[in-house]
Amino acid sequence: MAANPRRQSLVLLALCAVNLVLTVAALYNYDFFPLIVYVVPMLFASVMLQFRPFALTVLLQVCCVAVVMASLEQTPTRAVVCVVLAAIAAMLLTVSARVKVGLPGSLGESMIIDLRDRLLAQGELPALPASWYAQSALRSADGAQFAGDFMVASRAPGSDQLEVVMVDVSGKGLSAGTRALQLSGAFGGLLGALPADEFLGAANGYLLRQDWIEGFATAAHMVIDLETGNFEVRTAGHPPGLQWIAGSKTWISLPSDGPALGLIEDARFKAATGSIGSGDALLLYTDGLVESPSQDYRLGIDKLINEAERMLASGIDNGASRLLSRIGTTHDDRALLVLHRR
Fold this sequence. Notes:
Residues 131-341 form the PPM-type phosphatase domain. Keywords: Hydrolase, Membrane, Transmembrane, Transmembrane helix. By secondary structure, the protein is α+β, with helices and mostly antiparallel strands. It contains nine helices and ten strands. The protein has helices spanning 5-28, 39-48, 51-70, 76-98, 105-122, 173-190, 199-210, 297-314, 319-326, and strands at 132-139, 149-154, 161-169, 217-225, 230-236, 242-245, 250-253, 271-275, 281-285, 334-341. The chain has a five-stranded antiparallel beta sheet, with helices on one face. Strands 2-3-4-5-8 form a five-stranded antiparallel beta sheet.
């Protein structure tokens, strides 16, 4: 539902009309239309209207209630109903006024969900040549709506260069999710706009300027030439990328390291270089797949490698989703990218 002025005006007019109809009905037959029925349009107004039009609706209802009460014999029960209506109105007005984004519940939720969908959309992989297959997958901790893990991918039209950054923001849940929304927009602007060897340095500087209490994130940045298969992977406090060498049927860990983003000024990030040939594959992932309170991350990487071999043996299609369903803890955000050259 969009919070545009025209829709707000139409909703306000409709609710005013409903209140006037209820007032006429109460004056005609109070037994069938007691004062308590005003709660229904009041609740609708609190959900559908912004604060100012909602306050106008409440003011109109006060006038309507006063008219009805003036036409009736005053009783203790009717006085109690008026007090209850006033308490409900005060509570709803307070809640509506405290909504920082200026939107009622449903509209605010719609905006946040739209931001989350935009975050996920930035992680969608661009179209690749027929000789390449790629899939990414993301799962949030405990099925939450927001995750601190995200991925941004970029490929300029007509270019053979694919660039991907996978990020794990410190924390989890809503607090990590809101920081992930901000970082995804910033990193999306940097990706493809800077030389590959400058991206993590620029991202590190951006996080340092935010001065967040939990102001760090880990990242893996990959750039690959889809024509030659040559690639560079740089990591910042992130688990190492894994490459499958089809010729020797072995997995190798890509020797790249660097500090997490947002901790050290002028940090340097070493690149791991290589080439993906026919049948080879590359995995980027976040620590939710390989770490848990009861398991060392090295054991987690070994388990990931074993499951990845099974995945390759049974077919690469939908590989990222299958791997994500088999490994990692559900109590942490998890993200995975599978890139394969046919």
